[in-house]
Design brief:
215 residues; alpha+beta; Aminopeptidase; 8-stranded mixed β-sheet; 3-stranded antiparallel β-sheet; 11 strands
């Protein structure tokens, strides 16, 4: 579901980045079964069955260019995360995030209840980064609500670094947003983040991807 913090200070979403060029020189071998899920009817039904989304919603994600990376434990679906290189709607901020050329955005990661607490989330993120590095991407982005500390811990363990937080306050039809850079983030990277938030910039041959929530 979309998350909207209704406290007086509004919604705060932190953005993190992983520079694949400066990542580990030798990516660790994956010891768990994983698969880059295609738009197969059985896959869509399986994912919809435990994530709470409809098959129509998941089909739309695939049709608009997103892929789903899944971890399996003992041949059971354990954790999934979505990856896009086209604009994604960030429901918490009521705006778009457009990954720059060569970058990718990870969103809506879910681990099944009985598999939580075993470090699958950071492992899933490392698998995604490894796949994207092999595919020639340069950087991976991910975002999470400021109050979701469990997600932040997993993101940090996976090797992501904070870039900045976006504060959003809504009044009627108007939404005010402000980017607060992380003090340790480079100015160039902060500018990239600033330019990626806002109206969707359609790319030739790609459609806008409508998401539902951040990581």
């Amino acid at each position: 579901m979309e998350h909207e913090n209704r406290r007086s200070f509004g919604t705060v979403v932190g953005f993190w980045a992983f520079d694949l060029a400066s990542g580990p020189s030798h990516w660790p071998e994956c010891s768990l079964e994983y698969v880059d899920v295609g738009a197969k009817p059985d896959s869509i039904v399986e994912i919809a069955g435990w994530t709470g989304y409809s098959t129509a919603e998941l089909t739309a994600r695939f049709n608009h260019g997103a892929c789903c990376v899944s971890l399996h434990v003992d041949r059971e679906w354990a954790s999934v995360g979505w990856v896009s290189t086209v604009p994604v709607w960030v429901g918490e901020l009521l705006t778009w995030f457009t990954p720059p050329d060569g970058d990718a955005y990870v969103w809506d990661c879910v681990t099944r209840t009985r598999f939580r607490g075993h470090g699958l989330y950071p492992y899933l993120l490392r698998v995604i980064c490894w796949q994207l590095a092999v595919g020639g991407h340069r950087r991976v982005w991910i975002a999470t609500e400021w109050t979701n500390w469990r997600s932040e811990v997993g993101i940090a363990r996976a090797g992501f670094s904070p870039v900045g937080a976006v504060v959003a306050m809504r009044s009627g039809a108007f939404t005010w947003r402000r980017l607060i850079p992380d003090p340790d983030a480079g100015d160039d990277l902060v500018e990239v983040l600033k330019g990626s938030i806002g109206s969707a910039r359609r790319r030739k041959g790609n459609s806008s991807m409508v998401g539902r929530r951040a990581a």
